[in-house]
Automatic annotation (TrEMBL):
This is Uncharacterized protein. Residues 1-20 form the signal peptide. It comes from Polaribacter pectinis. Keywords: Signal.
């Protein structure tokens, strides 16, 4: 039978022979918090009918979407951001290709940064793109307050059918890396 005296003796011996180092409280000085923020930037779906006017006449070969993004209105984020990853996912059911230009604008709609143009092939249902912006070499992006996405339909020998049910789905997000010691 195990008695309380035997249990106490066992734990006492274990306590006295176990290894222990002195605590190093200076380790906190070496700690660097690097929070990460991920947020949606833009999402929309385009139908063939959007390339036609009310009479059914093809009216444009491009669609522009512009939205406000106010992440840099926060001084903490503006001061601590070190890198941004821009992620784009596209599902193109159209039987033609598209090119996309993504621009970041300030309050006066002047470009603060431009991502590389994206070229999406016809019927590409799983297009993905990731572009990274290092803030140290692109400081002007901190003045961004808007995003403008320009989608251009590439010329094709066959006209678009406005009654077609194909969709062009655009999703984008940004992952913002902060350095609290910056």
């Amino acid at each position: 039978m195990i008695t309380p005296k035997k249990i106490f003796t066992f734990f006492s011996i274990l306590f006295f022979i176990s290894c222990a180092d002195n605590l190093d409280f200076d380790q906190i000085n070496d700690y660097n918090a690097t929070p990460v923020i991920t947020s949606s930037l833009a999402y929309f779906t385009i139908l063939p009918s959007q390339f036609f006017d009310a009479t059914g006449t093809p009216s444009n070969s491009e669609i522009i979407d512009e939205s406000e993004i106010r992440i840099f209105d926060n001084d903490f984020v503006k001061d601590k951001v070190v890198k941004i990853d821009f992620n784009v996912e596209i599902k193109n059911e159209f039987d033609r290709s598209f090119s996309i230009q993504i621009d970041f604008l300030n309050d006066n709609r002047v470009i603060t940064h431009r991502l590389n143009e994206l070229n999406i092939n016809a019927n590409d249902l799983a297009f993905k793109d990731l572009q990274t912006v290092e803030i140290s070499s692109n400081l002007n992006i901190k003045n961004t307050t808007r995003i403008r996405i320009t989608i251009k339909i590439e010329n094709s020998a066959t006209p678009i059918n406005p009654a077609d049910t194909s969709e062009f789905e655009f999703k984008s997000s940004a992952t913002i890396y902060l350095d609290t010691d910056a």
